[in-house]
Amino acid sequence: MSGSLRRVAAQYLQCSFRGIPFAVMGSGGQAGRNTAVHAYPWRDGVWVEDMGKQGRQYHVSGLLVGPACYAQRDLLVRAAEIEGPGVLVHPTVGLFRVSLMRLEWRERDGMSNVIDLSFDFIEKTDLLGGLVTTALHAAIGVASALLRSSSLSDHRAATAAPFRRGASVLGHARSVATGWGGRAVGAIQSPQALSSALAALPGDHGRYNQGNAAAPVEGATTAAILVALSASRAIVEADSVALAGAPTGEALAEGCFTLTESLRAALYDPGVQITLLSSLSLYTTQGIQSTAPIGGAILQVEGATARICRIAALFSLAQASADWSATSSNEAEAMRQKLADLLDAEAVSAANAGWDKTWQALTGLRTEVTRDLGERAARLPDIIAIERNAPAPALVLAQQVYSDGARASDLIRRANPIHPAFMPTQFEALSS
Predict the structure, then answer these.
(1) How far is CA 334 from the centre of its chain?
(2) What are phi and psi of 378, to 5 degrees?
(3) Could you tell me if 431 and 384 are in contact, meaning their C-beta atoms sit under 8 angstroms apart?
(4) What per-residue confidence (pLDDT) applies to 347?
(5) Does residue 225 sit in helix, strand or coil?
(6) What residues does 63 pair with on adjacent strands?
(7) Among 308, 174, 177, 304, which residue's Cα sits nearest to residue 245?
(8) CA–CA dist 287, 301 (Å, integer)
(9) In terms of pLDDT, which residue wins out, 326 or 104?
(10) pTM across the whole model
(11) DSSP secondary-structure letter at 54?
(12) Which pLDDT tens digit goes with each residue over 18-62?
């Protein structure tokens, strides 16, 4: 039955929301004008006042089929809980920015690996461009979902026998995950996390708080941002504590992915997300070699737990890279090489450990991430060296180099002068 359903699902057109794919079984819409109906005493009929165009609504029913459907469902649930609009790619209507009003999912009675979906969307007025970039981001979401399901499957297969040797084996796995979770707690409490939160403030705050966020949050205040950051810290700390009390190895592995996604959601700046998640993706543990059966089991689960921790960090890291924006081709190329090295190293480690599905998923994710960053690098300006005979104000240089005084802030950030009125005689800037 499962194979038959997969063949049926493959016949449906594919759709995606925030890069998470699903099969479309049916869809409909609603459009028109907003009106206000006024009734008056001692007057026949009513007066209908036109209030403008109504937001277009879309009702979509979908289907998830296969072993990865539960991971895709979890990603869709998380996507539904993200604040703000997202990208909906519909096979017949097209690509547009929408707010998700409702998501319902249901597992069919007596059947596994099948989930029915129901969505209600309302279209935003600011339509998106950049179809190529959006398609690449969607591919990263698909590859990330496959990595999660594949690594959980390999972890379950690798630790099933060792965990049967007793509770002490699970205790050592918890200890490894808790040590890694402590690093995540340290990350959310770091100065970089505070800087990331302040990047949401509207206005120009100078070279010391440029941030990598796409846009500030309208109406955001310092007090509100600090309150939200404190709440996010509490969530990350709670997820870390949950690792110490995980009842099973499977729950422990799932908790690792929950923790990295909570950390990513807590950081507003994608650049800071990448920095802090990169350190979590390098986590290792030093096991004690033993010839005893229980010692061998402990050593095996410690290695598997450290690996699932690193993979969880890479899972969130790949999605952060899709939101990250570079200012130059050099910057995008450097990031492409950095992420490729991290994914390559973990793919080799997974292959050496016999985690074949994970190796294949990591290789696929590396391809999509590097392709996305490569496309962006090709469209961005290069870095050039500028030499002057004498110091000059940043506004003057911006006007001379770009014929745009508003570009002075970028020159200041790159040259980092003692004072913007006295720029250094040699510094790097964008070619255009």
Answers:
(1) 19
(2) -70, -25
(3) yes
(4) 92
(5) helix
(6) 23, 116
(7) 174
(8) 10
(9) 104
(10) 0.65
(11) P
(12) 778 888 888 888 888 888 888 888 888 888 888 877 888 889 998
